[in-house]
């Protein structure tokens, strides 16, 4: 009966994690999946999270159903983080926001909405992008194409090609953008480049879909939203998917959000109703545990400040690892320029390693990178960095 079912060979990122877990070598290093590990190699439970978890256990909160769109405090917290607490769009109720199952869930709900209400719209993603962007949008029935982005020659952005590409797109096309910490390259547009990109988007009536999964890991929590806030200030209608997986270290609790900024409060009301309908049909309502944690941390000023500091500790540790890797590799192979390690931002570095070199790292050294050469810098620590640098130098010879 099921003999014609096609086998799914697995995901290039999550499949790698499965392989890593099965690897019995003690010196193995996981630099594949986008997860922050602390200097001892563990996924941290943030102190602000521990505080609210203790409160929650003490209270024995009942396991009730949540509203389809999630806790009101959670949704307000998403809006304030993304748009700034005093933003006119928030005050005038022009933003439809739902809690989602992580950033992936937000992307999928957004894609479902686009497919239903704008069925002709094609989506354009950066070349390269996080592979699941393509799967999620195609899975919702949307045609996906790539726009020029990464330039391996300069280890920068193909900015002229990108602009030319956007200029010839049909009005209403969806442009998937990474407001900060581009995944997988770690290369972000400058503020001036964002201004130029958004001018073209406005001029050509394109629709930005901004996916922000690493807020706080680039510059800081507010500055990382530059492109989002600028777009809203320009009066653009935008979709924003956000995630607390990384910046609250709540990966398994699936905490994210989708916000759609609309021209009027009435349109936001209509959009909100449809997002709820989509949720009802897909999974009815979100799980409460992670939602409760986010709500309680983000809406308590003391815990919020503590959270910000904890995000910056993670950000700074990644930066320190970037500098150290750069120093060690540069000293080992002086003829090659490794400065990209310190220029790239966020968790990821596009190393330029070929699939063969990545494979050698895995097979010979137990060092796991994504096949496209993406390395998660947050998997490096003071105990493994020399080992990884030596292994990389070996395969680069
Ligand atoms: C990543 O890019 O590694 C993360 O976003 C995790 C994932 O789901 O792929």
UniProtKB/TrEMBL annotation:
It holds the Pfam family Aminotran_1_2. One of its GO terms (biological process) is L-phenylalanine biosynthetic process from chorismate via phenylpyruvate. Homodimer. Belongs to the class-I pyridoxal-phosphate-dependent aminotransferase family. Residues 27-391 form the Aminotransferase class I/classII large domain. Its cofactor is pyridoxal 5'-phosphate. It comes from the Bacteria. Gene3D superfamilies: Aspartate Aminotransferase, domain 1, Type I PLP-dependent aspartate aminotransferase-like (Major domain). SUPFAM superfamilies: PLP-dependent transferases. This is Aminotransferase. The keyword Transferase applies. GO terms for cellular component: cytosol. Keywords: Aminotransferase, Pyridoxal phosphate, Transferase. Its EC number is 2.6.1.-. PROSITE patterns: AA_TRANSFER_CLASS_1.
């Amino acid at each position: 009966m099921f003999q014609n079912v096609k086998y799914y060979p697995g995901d290039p990122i999550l499949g790698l994690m499965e392989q890593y877990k099965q690897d019995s070598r003690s010196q193995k290093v996981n630099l594949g999946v986008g997860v922050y590990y602390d200097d001892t190699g563990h996924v941290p439970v943030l102190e602000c999270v521990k505080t609210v978890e203790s409160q929650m256990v003490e209270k024995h909160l009942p396991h009730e159903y949540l509203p389809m769109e999630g806790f009101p405090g959670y949704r307000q917290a998403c809006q304030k983080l993304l748009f700034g607490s005093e933003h006119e769009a928030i005050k005038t109720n022009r933003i439809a926001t739902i809690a989602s199952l992580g950033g992936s869930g937000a992307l999928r709900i957004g894609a479902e909405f686009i497919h239903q209400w704008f069925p002709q719209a094609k989506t354009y993603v950066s070349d390269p992008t996080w592979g699941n962007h393509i799967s999620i949008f195609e899975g919702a029935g949307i045609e996906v194409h790539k726009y020029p982005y990464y330039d391996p020659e300069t280890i920068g952005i193909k900015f002229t090609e990108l602009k030319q590409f956007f200029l010839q797109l049909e009005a209403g096309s969806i442009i998937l953008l990474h407001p900060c910490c581009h995944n997988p390259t770690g290369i972000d547009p400058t503020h001036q480049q964002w201004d130029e990109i958004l001018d073209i988007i406005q001029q050509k009536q394109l629709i930005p879909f901004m996916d922000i999964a690493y807020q706080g890991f680039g510059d800081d929590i507010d500055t990382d939203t530059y492109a989002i806030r600028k777009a809203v200030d320009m009066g653009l209608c935008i979709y924003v998917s956000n995630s607390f997986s990384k910046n609250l270290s709540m990966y398994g609790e699936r905490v994210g959000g989708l916000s759609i900024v609309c021209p009027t409060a009435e349109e936001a009301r209509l959009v909100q109703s449809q997002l709820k309908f989509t949720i009802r049909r897909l999974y009815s309502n979100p799980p409460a545990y992670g939602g409760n944690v986010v709500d309680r941390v983000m809406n308590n000023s003391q815990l919020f400040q503590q959270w910000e500091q904890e995000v910056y500790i993670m950000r700074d540790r990644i930066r320190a690892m970037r500098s150290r890797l750069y120093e060690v590799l540069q000293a080992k192979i002086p003829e090659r320029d490794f400065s990209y390690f310190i220029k790239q931002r966020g968790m990821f570095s596009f190393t330029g390693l070929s699939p063969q070199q990545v494979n050698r790292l895995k097979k010979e050294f137990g060092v796991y990178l994504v096949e496209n050469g993406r390395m998660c810098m947050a998997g490096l620590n003071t105990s493994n960095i020399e080992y990884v640098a030596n292994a990389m130098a070996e395969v680069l010879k």
